[in-house]
Structures are given as structure tokens and as C-alpha cells.
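Sequence in, structure out.
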Amino acid sequence: MRILLRLLVIASLVSILFACTTPPPQQSSIPEHLFHDQLFAAQHDVIDHQQIFKVNPAMRQFIATYITPDLKHKSMQQALFDALYHKGQLRLTYDASVTRDAADTFAARAGNCLSLVIMTAALAKELDLTVQYQHIIVDQNWSRSGELYFSNGHVNIVLGKKRFDTRQSYDKSYWLTIDFLPPEDTAGQKSFELEEKTIIAMYMNNRAAEALARNQLDQAYWWAREAIASDANFATAYNTLGVIYYRHNNLDAAYQASLQARRLSPENTSAMANMVQILTSLGKVDEAKKLNAQLTQAQPIAPFYFFKQGLAAMEKSDFKQAKLWFEKELARAPDYHEFHFWLGLAHYRLGEFKQAEEQLTLAKASSLNKKDHALYQAKLDHLHSISQQGRGLQIN
């Protein structure tokens, strides 16, 4: 079994985790000049880095009940893995709507993949196992929330032997990789190790992204600030900070933050796209055109391009053309729920009810949180009900 980390990384167009495989330029210290605390409401709740991996009594009881008894005939790594993901003791549910710390993920029995990696790491460290994190370079995938577009990165976790363990009941050099992606999706893909400070920065950046999606700009700012404080070389956090400033109408600050993102990750197409918007808003039209030409060369077809064309066709009631656009987008991202939903709607408008039901079923199956899953199930139930009555269905 492999664990997918669906990392929320945001922007107006959103930044990818890392745009190149060569080491980025290093930021020697936290760039305090990029922070403008006075522009945002004060943060009353302290953001505690230590809380992210904190293990509570319920988690310790889980170890004592489900892991310790297995150690007579299993390695500690395997016992942990089986307790969490094989035996299904926790009955974990994937939920992409929020990033939780270890204790909250354990209590909720749900979380996105970064939350699951953090919870697994916390339990492993409680068992005194060594922990490594890896960034796996996989094909770029996108999602959206309103006008914000998210790029999805991938991280897995590697559990090593218990430190200073002298037991001879298992191979002490044994390592176990836990990753939700199927092996064929990551076979042959390049990877590199991540420091825990970068995992913490990802967590903070996710929280910033989620706050930004709720239009809570003050909260988003403080989370993004902490992401940079956690790892000054994490380019994604600067891109997020730039979007926050842009949405807050602080264009000069947005430019400086985005410029730093591009310094650290110069081939990042999302950072380029955001900078084009910022330059245009600042009236630097020539610079924006020049950068947009570079962007077009690096990324000829923008994320969600075909989807947007499909939405435009739907507004014109050109459902046949809309269907073609949505099918083209699905060819690029066959597992994204919203594309299936809109293709299903286009089928319905064309009177293709069987195909509409098929696409709604796929939308439900590929939804990434409980809210969307329930929404698509309601659409399917309504479709079945109306179909039995021989009347039309409104599913938009």
C-alpha cells in the first residue's frame, strides 16, 4: 500500500511543490523584509510547531493495545503499518478538506495525506523509530476552490529501525516505505529526501491555503509567515504569501514575495503565472508580456484551460461542444471529480441520461472530501428518483 500526499499548494494559479530537480538557491536566513505584520489583524492563538507531532494519551493507548502485542513476531515498522493501514484498526477516512496535526488526525480518524503522514511519523517517533520523508516527483495534478487553483505534490514516509535496538529478532537494517500511491504510479520516479522542517513548512502552508480558500486573509498571512519561518528555502510558501498580499491589495508586497518564490524556484510555472498577474496589476505591461511569453513556452496549455472553455460553452447552451471540452480536460486529469460532474451535466443536457449517471458515479468515487461525496450522492439519488418518474432532472 502506498500513501498519497495530496499537498495543498495555492496561488491565483498555484505553485507546484518544486519545479526542478536541481537544488534551488539557498536562503541563508528568514527574509524579515518580506513580512508586513501591520497589514493584518494580530494573531491571538500561538502557532505551536511542537503541537504538530505531539502524541496524546489516546495515541499511546493505541500503541499499547494494537502495536506492542505484535512485536513478538513482527518488526516494529511492520507492526505500526499493520495497525494503522492493514488491519484497519483506526478505520481511517481520506478527507482533503482540512490539514490536521497528528493528534487531531488520530481523533478524527480522517485527514488529507499530509495529515496521515504526520500522524504516522508521530506514532513512529513515539516508538523511537527513525523517520525519513521523501518528495516523489510525479505528474502534476490540479484542483480548485473558486478562483484559487491548487497543485498537488506527493510525499511519502520511510520508517527505519529503532534507534539503539539490540534485538536480533528481525533485520535491524529493515526500512519500510509507506505510500498510498499504487507502485506503478511512482515506479521509476525521481525522489529526494525532505527535512522535517520542510514537512512542518508544508503543514503551515496548507493551513494558509485553507484559510485563503475561506477568504480569511489574516489567518492565511500568519500561517504563511510561519511556513517561511519553518523553512526559509520552501519556495511554495513565498508564492502563497504573494497571493495573500495580492488578494489583500498590497501589490508591492505581493511582487517582492513572488520574486523570492521565483528566485528559489525559477522554473515554477505557477510562480510565473502569478507574477504575470502582479506585474499587470502594477502597470508593468511590457514585463508581464515578456514573462507571459516564457510561461507559454514552458506551459503551452494552462491548468483548467479546457475546463474553462467547457464552462463557457455551457453558458452558451452549446452542450455538445462543452462535452468535448470536458472530455479533453479529463484526458489530462482522469481522476478529478469536478470534471466528471460537469461532463455528466453536459450529457444530461444532451439527453444522454445513462452517460450522465456514469459520470456522476465517477465524480462521487473520485471526490476528496465528505462534503463533495455527499453532494454527488444526492445528485445520483435525485437522478434515480426523477428517472423513475419519467421526468427531467436539474442537477446543476
